[in-house]
Amino acid sequence: MLKVNHIGLTGMMASGKGEAVKILEELGYRYISLSDMVREEAAKTGRTVTREEMQDIGNRLRTEGGPGVLGKRVREKIGGLPPGKWVIDGIRNPHEVTELKKLEPFTLIGVLSDRNRIIERLNRRMRDTDIADHRQLHERLDREWGKNEPEGGQQVGRCIDISDRIINNNGSLGELKEKVLNILGEMEESHG
């Protein structure tokens, strides 16, 4: 049986984490995102919220419940389900990583892309939460990386720093798939 049971993904929006999730789902991984916990909270407002409001809600949850609260909620949700392979997306704070490492074995993969490539992808995918002018997009990316964010805020840059593996995703989907499969193979060997 596959020993790599819990894979966490961290990276900037539009870095390719969603595509990595699809690849892992094809391999039998079940998907859950820390952002799901934020969306559940946002739904309580009864209206559509902006990306900035989603970030604010996530920060509020971390302030109220501790900086690892979203990781803890996901860990508890997974713990209440039958054992299996999981891909966990939306990790944006190192304290969330600490909580998720309690799921053994757990491996954090950082997905990196050039900022210009990210902005191209954001403009192409046109989600409601992605629509913004050039300056706003850069501000959102800076915030997500951790610029001017509190300890319990978004700290993707720090999560990348503590990642077990890194994928540089500036190429094709085929190249991304090859990189994901190579990392899984390396992880299997190191756990074997």
Would you kindly provide a brief summary of this structure?
It contains nine helices and five strands, in the order βαβαααβαβαααβα. The protein is α/β, with parallel strands linked by helices and 192 residues long.
Describe the structure in your own words.
The protein is α/β, with parallel strands linked by helices and 192 residues long. It has a single domain, classed as 3-Layer(aba) Sandwich (Rossmann fold). It contains nine helices and five strands; from the N terminus they run βαβαααβαβαααβα. It has helices spanning 17-26, 34-43, 51-65, 69-79, 94-100, 115-125, 134-145, 156-161, 173-191, and strands at 6-11, 30-33, 86-91, 106-112, 165-168. The model has no long low-confidence stretch (mean pLDDT 89).
The biggest sheet, with number of strands, parallel, antiparallel or mixed sense and barrel status, is: 5 strands, parallel
CATH class division: Alpha Beta
Provide the CATH superfamily.
Answer: P-loop containing nucleotide triphosphate hydrolases
Count of alpha/pi helices = 9
**CATH fold title:** Rossmann fold
Helix content: 40-55%
Total DSSP E strands: 5
N-to-C terminal Cα separation, in Å?
11 Å
What gyration radius follows from the Cα positions, in whole Å? 16 Å
Shape: globular
Strand arrangement in the largest pleated sheet: 2-3-1-4-5
Task: Give the number of domains.
Answer: 1
User: Strand share of the residues?
Assistant: 5-15%
Order of helices and strands: EHEHHHEHEHHHEH
| CATH-defined architecture | 3-Layer(aba) Sandwich
Overall mean pLDDT: 89
Structural class: alpha/beta
Instruction: List low-pLDDT spans.
Output: none
